[in-house]
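Worked problem 6 (solution included).
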Amino acid sequence: MKVLTKEIFGWAMFDFANSSYTTVIITAIFNLYFIEGVVGDPNHGDYLWGMTLSISYLIVVLVSPILGAIADFSALKKRFLLFTSLVCVGFTAPLYFVGPGDLILAMTFVILSNIGFSLGENLISSFLPEITTKDHIGRVSGYGWGLGFLGGILALLGSIVILKSMDGDSLGYKLIYPFVALFFALSAIPTFLWVKERGTRHQDIQGLRAYAQIGYQQLMSTFRHLSDFKELVKLLFAFFFYNAGLITVIAFAVPYAKEVFGFEKGELIVLIIVSNVAASIGAILFGFIQDKIGAKRTLVITVAWWIITVFGIYSVESQKGFWVMASMAGFGLGSAQSATRAMVGLFSPKSRLAEFYGFWGMFGKLSSILGLYSFGLLSYVTSSKKLALLSTAVFFIIGFIILLWINERKGIQRSTSYDRDITKIEETGPADEL
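Solution. The predicted structure is:
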């Protein structure tokens, strides 16, 4: 496998590019505008924001495994990545037209742009095992996440410059969204120039119906053999639970800091920047640690870190204490996400990377629906963001327990033997079962 340094850089630049969307739209600026400006009621806004993201994730759940199967079979991962990127960019820019009370318009643009973002996240991740080796997959994944958080910071700073130049005028807020779309589009150019399509196309596919049929057939084949990938299944279920906590904290961290601790807008921006810097350091550092001690041990450490952090956030009573806990959360965020992506790559056969990362995306979005809906509902019913946040500790604890049952060595061996079996079948003819 020949991989160039510029290809790894090109791959990591997609994380740099798409983090502009998550940081500015989902975490820092538009989410607050949605809750306070579009809806106008904090508790009801939390509920509707969680519902909006949940709807987008539900659609991703239904689409991602089939899209991954089609991408593997047709060797068109790169083209599908381009299409999903254009969807995200194309529906982020029109957020410019959303004003107070435009609830349906806001929900529609966020749902569609987030679908594009989420499907693209699965597809770009499926290139990871192809551009590095098992011995270095942790650090390469860490490079991507680390560069991604830096991209988020730069996009946020650019958004602030736009606001300052417009003296806080409403037009300044509107211009942020086309800026984010442009940032994403331009930053992703190295990905499409340098990352190679390494799959082998099985046959030419013509028409949407043929694509769907092939995707369904491949998916059913995977389901029949999924029991052969027991360690991957354990990982996906562990991920399902601790990711519910992760996504919830990401989505509601800013509203939580504003309502519970009285952070002003300027303080919130600094808080996000500090958290992203901590996340970047955590992702890169734990990438090296993973390559030294293994993916499972790294994930066990990071999820345990999150359990401590959630209880810490609930317990602190001052802004100073929250600053400390937010930095801890950021540090654990980058490491947990990076290590999970790398471990999925270790457990996935190279002949079905996009499909298996599609399952990763499916479990991730299902867990996002659970976490976001739970937080929004609890916040609305109890009128307490603190109690809603504390509930996420349950997700982390369940995920932590499942992680302890994973056998990393068996997971890696199975992915390798599966590809070896596939090679034999292609050379000698099909067998009834693998």
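Discussion: Residues 430-434 have pLDDT under 50 and may be disordered.
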